[in-house]
Amino acid sequence: MGALEIEKRWDLLLDSVARLAPPAPPLVLCGTGALEGSLRAQAERLGLDVRFVGQLDSAELVGAYNAATCVVHTRPDEVFALALIEALACGRPVLAAGGGGTPELLGAAGVLAPAGDPTAFGRLLQDLLGDHERRAALALAARRRAVERYSVERMVRDYAEVVEALGEGRG
Q: Cystine design at 76: which of 54, 97, 124, 137 (Cβ 3.0–4.6 Å)?
C-alpha cells in the first residue's frame, strides 16, 4: 500500500518474497509511481506472481487490507506510517522494517525485521505465513493497538488534554 517510489523499498519486498519456499504466495501491490515499470520487470525476473492494482479508493483499500494474509512494510525510516495504522485498524498481521518510528508505532502488535535485509525479511515472512495461530494473535493485537492508540476518540482525548494543559499555563 503506497507510492511505488524508491524510498518505500518495494525492491526489498520482492527480493524477500523470492526467498520464500516455493511456491511463493501471490503478492498484491496497491499504489502507483515511478517504479512501477522496474518493479514489474523485477517481479517477472524473479518469477513472482505480483498484481499491480494501482491507486485504490477508501472502500477498495479497506477491502485490500482485509483480504491480505499479512502486510509487509519495508521502508526503514518512516516516522509515522499511515499504511501501518491502516493495517492495524483492519486487524492485519504486520511485518515491518525496524527503523524510524515503526517499532514504537507497532509495539508488540507486529513483527520487526532488520532494515534492508531481504534474507531476514524472507525468513520472518516465511515463519509468519506458516503460523496461522501467530497471525491470528497478531491480528487481534493489531486491532486492539489501533483502537487504544490511534482511534479518533483517543486523538480527541489527547488533544483535549493538551489544550487543557495550555489553558492552565502548564504548556
A: 97
Q: Which amino acid is at 4?
A: L
Q: What is the pTM of this model?
A: 0.91
Find, among 49, 6, 3, the residue nearest to 28 by Cα: 49
Cell numbers placing 81: 506510517
Judge if the upstream peptide bond of residue 23 is cis by omega within 30 degrees of 0. Answer: yes
Taking only the tens place, the pLDDT of each residue in 55-69 is: 999 999 999 999 999
CA–CA distance, 38 with 135 (Å, rounded to integer): 31
Residue 10 · residue 121 · CB < 8 Å: no
**Residue among 80, 70, 87 at smallest CA distance from 136:** 70
Residues 52, 36: contact at Cβ < 8 Å? Answer: yes
pLDDT surpassing 70 at residue 171? no
Give the separation between CA 21 and CA 92, rounded to whole angstroms.
22
- The contacts found for 131-136 with CB under 8 angstroms, 24 or more apart, are 134/93, 135/69, 135/70, 135/93
Pairing between β-strand 71-73 and β-strand 111-113 as defined by DSSP bridges: unpaired
Q: Which residues make Cβ contacts (< 8 Å) with residue 126, sequence separation at least 6?
A: 19, 20, 21
Specify whether the CB–CB gap between 15 and 24 falls below 8 A.
no
